[in-house]
UniProtKB/TrEMBL annotation:
This is Agmatine/peptidylarginine deiminase. One of its GO terms (molecular function) is agmatine deiminase activity. SUPFAM superfamilies: Pentein. It comes from the Bacteria. Keywords: Hydrolase. InterPro entries: Peptidyl-Arg-deiminase_porph. Coiled coil: none annotated. One of its GO terms (biological process) is putrescine biosynthetic process. It comes from Pseudoxanthomonas taiwanensis J19.
Amino acid sequence: MTENLRFPAEWEPQSAILIAWPHAGTDWAERLGEVEETYIALVAAITRFQDAWICVADDDVETYAEARLRSARIDMERVRFIPFDYDDTWLRDSGPITLREGDGFRVLDFRFTAWGGKFEAGRDDRLVQALAAQGLFGDAVHQRIDFALEGGGIETDGAGTLLTTWRCLHERHPQASREELSAKLAGWLAQDRVLWLDHGYLEGDDTDAHIDTLARFAPGDAIVFQACDDQGDSHYAELKAMADEIAALRTADGRPYRLFPLPWAAPVIDEGRRLAASYANFLVINGAVLMPAYGDPADEAAAAVLAQAFPGREIVQVPCRPLIWQNGSLHCISMQLPAGLGH
């Protein structure tokens, strides 16, 4: 691990969760009412435990968002609005990746290409610079890195191990070898080693297999992952192969990881299209795990698994069925900020 730099795990203390409010100028326009309800539920859950920082595209969006949150009786003392005109609301991928640097912080600003140029992303690619210019990160060092990387594509245990997928990183950087990519990621993200998964995908996912839809670290050398036990499902073979890969992984000191397979929700079909309903797309905050719920009987079983993987934390279900219409879920729309970062 790079001396004096450390990439904290998501379950470490946080100062806030950063999100962006959906509005009619984003891809949510067609189903905005449903999506707003998910955002209100998310902010309500976050503010029970810590602050929520909400990007708003303009004054009208801020006024509207504040009115909706107040009507939901949310603690507005824990809400902060941040003006910035964004393309979309997937802040896990366009937002800051924060390292601890001694007693301070280093905010990494990777190039955001909307998942390999699939959509317009010019404004979103300027998000981190704009937040830094507004002084939101205080004295943190802002480091722009000319390399396409999304926060949803990487997962750290906070102790020097990074987990990612070859499918995603190879798609973004087809000319780079696995060794080259491992060295770059380890250098920028202060990691001792990079673990790669070659299997795992979800229909309805346009990120090229982001790790945060598939497998996540948990405290105490554990991995929580999306399993599929339905042999008739189109995902069965690929997720079984991924489960076998995960079982073969070893901790930094050579032990198997403790494994927590998540249940499989029934297929969600929307206008003939299968949507990516992953329980692995949870968000860890101070004292709780916010879990995407899909109105499926497996929701309760998933909550029970997460309670085992994150003992001592409350498991809060957030209705996320509206989000998966746009191919992402709870973790995808949020980015945690470590405790001590921000003004």
